[in-house]
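Please fill in the sequence for the structure shown.

STRUCTURE ENCODING:
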């Protein structure tokens, strides 16, 4: 944009499910735009690196002096600087963002990435710079309460839409992190893209997000066990529902040997309303090797970023399911009224705010 006075722009994305970002351009290259972000009209809110190919248009929303009388300092602000005030050198003409360089600016970064339904967001501490290659970004996830996962998560570089740096939200999260992390949080499995596969220890199997190509394999798994298979329409619907997660365990030839899901159930369907672990099925030939437990860990890691409490409901006679849920941290909720039938369901819950569940 040209003109004698700086303007604040609204950056709109090609995917209209992603919210626009407002701010002033500090620098730009052929691959990336460095934006000094604003909120509440023109109150400064850190920086955002935006991948140019995702931008649909940049719309001026007003002159800086008309919008930002309460903001102290010049506009646009200086380029990114580290804790010592030194400028951070970024190559905005290269698709490969240097996380080692960016980590000097702030302890926690916000990774905005593509998902099947709009935009995903995960916060993390960059790590493993020696293995930080052209294919993946490596970081440890920081939960909303400031705890840092001990396991390293990888995100495909090609999936990254924008990188949030030094926003008020991340500054508060970093403060929580400093208070909460005398030790890293327990290692968990975190799956944030369909390309991410997690190996199951001491087995030849991988756990990953399910996709439409897995539908025949899930149906065949049910048929081998003598159960009616879920319909393709049902499976495809839950796979794209942003309030659901469907995962599969696959062998080295990508054949489905187990699958599991979790989803939000409203009050019109269940009491209480909330997120539930809603099923797991493992091929009879691959039981008792830890697949169900690992798939529970993957789903609970996903749920930790969305809720404080997870529920499960199983028929009272299903003792294997009750033992399985108890082993991953669930406790049974006492019934307010006596059971009217031996086959009535048992309701269980897992409270993430309980230290024993973290």
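FILLED IN BY: designer on duty
SEQUENCE:
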């Amino acid at each position: 944009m040209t003109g004698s006075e700086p303007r604040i722009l609204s950056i709109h994305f090609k995917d209209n499910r992603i919210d626009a970002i407002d701010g002033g351009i500090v620098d730009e290259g052929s691959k990336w735009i460095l934006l000094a972000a604003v909120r509440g009209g023109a109150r400064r809110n850190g920086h955002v690196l935006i991948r140019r190919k995702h931008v649909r248009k940049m719309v001026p929303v007003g002159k800086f002096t008309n919008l930002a009388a309460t903001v102290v300092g010049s506009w646009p602000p200086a380029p990114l600087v580290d804790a010592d005030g030194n400028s951070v050198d970024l190559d905005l003409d290269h698709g490969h963002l240097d996380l080692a360089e960016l980590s000097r600016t702030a302890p926690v970064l916000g990774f905005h990435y593509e998902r099947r339904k709009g935009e995903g967001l995960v916060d993390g501490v960059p790590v493993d710079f020696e293995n930080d290659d052209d294919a993946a970004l490596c970081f440890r996830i920081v939960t909303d309460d400031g705890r840092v996962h001990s396991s390293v998560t990888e995100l495909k570089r090609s999936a990254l839409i924008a990188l949030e740096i030094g926003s008020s939200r991340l500054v508060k999260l970093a403060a929580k992190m400093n208070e909460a992390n005398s030790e890293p949080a327990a290692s968990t499995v975190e799956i944030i893209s369909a390309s991410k596969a997690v190996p199951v220890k001491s087995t030849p199997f991988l756990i990953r997000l399910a996709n439409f190509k897995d539908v025949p394999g899930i149906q065949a798994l049910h048929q081998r066990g003598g159960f009616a298979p879920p319909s393709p329409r049902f499976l495809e619907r839950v796979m794209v529902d942003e309030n659901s997660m469907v995962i599969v365990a696959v062998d080295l030839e990508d054949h489905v040997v187990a699958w599991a899901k979790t989803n939000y159930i409203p009050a019109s369907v269940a009491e209480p309303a909330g997120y539930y672990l809603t099923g797991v099925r493992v091929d009879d030939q691959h039981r008792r090797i830890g697949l169900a437990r690992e798939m529970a860990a993957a789903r609970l890691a996903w749920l930790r970023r969305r809720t404080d409490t997870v529920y499960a409901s199983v028929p009272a006679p299903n003792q294997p399911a009750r033992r399985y849920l108890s082993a991953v941290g669930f406790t049974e909720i006492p019934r307010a009224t006596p059971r009217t039938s031996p086959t009535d369901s048992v309701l269980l819950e897992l409270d993430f705010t309980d230290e024993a569940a973290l």
